[in-house]
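Severity: low
Component: inverse-folding endpoint
Summary: output formatting inconsistent between runs
Steps to reproduce: submit the following structure tokens with default settings.
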């Protein structure tokens, strides 16, 4: 025992121990008087604001705050001094939507923020976007044309990412035309057999991908794709250069022409990824799902709508939904194409309808899992809830009200467990 104790003490002496940085001592909390943050139209929501240091109220703190329908606050106050570090606020809405109280506190030369977004009859929200008469024919013709080009898939083994349970590869295959490639990281269990499959579609931006070896690695095939037609195993600097150069603000490219939209190739690439997975001899021919968050939430909706082989989808704080809502002064989905515009280009408005998650959501028939937060200021809950409401197929909604455009650990775990359940496997 003495020898073991000596060994442990010696080990502690040579192994560096560093404290982790977590959060802030100073916090701004905004709390509603309904535990579920939900109200009926016409009710009044009461909010309590607290600015604390080490969980005790900060005296004589200066704050700015905005209040009103999300993205359209009708009250703005600056330089308000809270003598005891707290204040009360009341707000209500006369129509379905979300009411947000956002607070900035200034302490020791630094700015701290907090907010709370209350829902008013959110189950009554409906999207504004118009469904084009030729939406179905446009996409069926687009996919039929793309599929005239063989996948011509390639695969490169990545030994440094593989292990005894899973083989990992970088793969690529033709997308919308010959030479226009989709790249991704494919994970396949090493044990011979037939497996369910999952397609992971990405959020906005440009980045490398590590691949998914955490979703039941011995029990499922997973393909994680990029959308920009480039190798997904390069150093981060490679993608930074792209984001600052050739694909900067790519989500706006071709917005005035449905055939020139950047997202045409992106959506087609997601569907052709299902083609690729279905071509794998290891796929069991039964369960195949698609999932992603933000931009990936939109792509999950689009893929599930356009390919009936998809048996389930998970759409988390889905972006690119209800683009035209802002034309009615209602919160619109990222990338907020027409926010603040009085007279937007009619061609852009028309094109946006072919790339609106709402119009894909209308067409989905397989089971789906939705999750989002009320405090999200990138993908407004107004659009997320309206999109969820328009889905007529089987669906589940898991709300994490306090989240903004990020995940809670419990939310992540629930998502993973739901995906595994849909594939008929257990997460151990």
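Observed output (run 2 of 3):
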């Amino acid at each position: 025992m003495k020898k073991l104790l000596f060994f442990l003490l010696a080990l502690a002496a040579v192994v560096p121990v560093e404290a982790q940085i977590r959060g802030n001592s100073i916090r701004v909390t905004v709390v509603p008087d309904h535990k579920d943050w939900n109200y009926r139209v016409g009710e009044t929501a009461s909010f309590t604001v607290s600015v604390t240091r080490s969980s005790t109220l900060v005296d004589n703190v200066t704050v700015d705050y905005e209040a009103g329908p999300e993205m359209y606050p009708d009250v703005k106050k600056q330089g308000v001094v809270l003598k005891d570090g707290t204040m009360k606020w009341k707000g209500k809405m006369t129509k379905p939507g979300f009411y947000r109280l956002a607070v900035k506190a200034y302490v020791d030369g630094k700015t701290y923020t907090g907010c709370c977004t209350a829902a008013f009859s959110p189950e009554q929200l409906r999207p504004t976007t118009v469904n084009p008469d030729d939406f179905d024919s446009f996409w069926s013709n687009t996919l039929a044309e793309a599929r005239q080009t063989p996948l011509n898939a390639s695969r490169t083994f990545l030994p440094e990412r593989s292990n005894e349970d899973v083989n990992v590869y970088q793969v690529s295959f033709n997308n919308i035309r010959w030479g226009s490639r989709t790249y991704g990281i494919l994970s396949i269990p090493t044990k011979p057999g037939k497996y369910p499959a999952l397609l992971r579609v990405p959020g906005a931006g440009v980045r490398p991908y590590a691949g998914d070896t955490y979703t039941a690695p011995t029990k499922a095939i997973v393909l994680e794709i990029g959308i920009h037609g480039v190798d997904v195993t390069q150093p981060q600097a490679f993608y930074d250069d792209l984001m600052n150069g050739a694909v900067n603000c790519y989500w706006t490219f071709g917005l005035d022409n449905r055939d020139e939209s950047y997202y045409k190739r992106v959506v087609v690439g997601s569907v052709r990824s299902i083609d690729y997975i279905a071509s794998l001899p290891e796929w069991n021919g039964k369960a195949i799902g698609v999932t992603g968050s933000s931009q990936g939430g939109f792509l999950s909706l689009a893929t599930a709508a356009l390919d009936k082989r998809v048996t389930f989808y998970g759409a988390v704080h889905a972006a690119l939904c209800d683009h035209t809502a802002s034309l009615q002064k209602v919160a619109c989905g990222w990338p907020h194409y027409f926010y603040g515009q009085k007279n937007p280009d009619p061609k852009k408005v028309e094109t946006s309808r072919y790339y609106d998650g709402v119009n894909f959501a209308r067409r989905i028939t397989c089971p789906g899992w939705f999750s989002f937060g009320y405090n999200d200021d990138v993908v407004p809950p107004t659009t997320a809830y309206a999109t969820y409401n328009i889905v007529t197929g089987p669906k589940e909604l898991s709300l994490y009200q306090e989240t903004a455009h990020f995940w809670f650990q419990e939310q992540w775990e629930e998502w993973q467990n739901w995906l595994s359940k849909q594939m008929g496997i257990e997460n151990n």
